[in-house]
Design a protein that fits this description.
Shape: globular
CATH superfamily of the largest domain: dinb family like domain
Strand content: 5-15%
Low-confidence stretches: none
Number of helices: 10
Order of helices and strands: HHHHHHHEEEEHHEH
Number of strands: 5
Strand order of the largest sheet: 3-2-1-4-5
Largest sheet: 5 strands, mixed
Radius of gyration: 19 Å
Distance between the termini: 27 Å
Amino acid sequence: MTLLRGLPPDDWHRPTVAGSWLVRDVVAHLVDLTFRRLSFHRDRMAPPPPSKSITSERDFVDFINAINAQWVDAAQRFSPRVLTDLLEKASADLADWFESLPADAPGLFGVSWAGEMESDGWFDIGREFTELWHHQEQIRMAVGAPTLDDPRFLKAVIEIAVRGLPHAYRDVPAGDGETMVLVISGPAGGTWTLLREGGRWQITTGEPPTPTSRVRLSDEAAWKLLFNALRGEAQIASAVRIDGKRQLAEPLLRARSIVV
């Protein structure tokens, strides 16, 4: 909120890595996300039904993109001050609501990018945290502001985001016992292993003695990759180092922890 309050008028119209959205559009989207969650979760209002049946993952993505665009278009009528005031109010209410929930409460929504129709409450809330975090980071990138300097925030984002990797790898063939290790350096980093077992992929922390494949990248590059902030093959290739069986590592470069 401090950053938004201090932005000069021109900065609200800077482009971001969020497709065609400008800074003001990303802020408007944050307002929408926050009020939407309060309405559906805290206030138990049933979400309006989609205009057409959702029968595939593509239908769901199109539906989400459409409702996001509807709000952003309508918010063109709001000033930066109004958008900021709305976000400040909604964010405080959302924080109060989330902090009142038990960690083992059932989630309101399944985390679709992890392939879950139903999710535990902590994962649903964690997904919401990653959404809010990466959008504020898009704004910071666009206006040249420094990233949040406490690595706990980014570490939480990464720990939630990597839980989508088994779903991202669901169609990647491999023999039982084959592994793909993800090593993320930096203060928010860690090490995770994707293991093929029983015909399915599982994720664990740590690293086996002899992994089939290994991908190394920084914590900054990791969030940008998983949240679609690295653009083009050249940017992605320069951010990662692959050792071992390359075809087992390359699907990671296409994995995303957002609805796309």
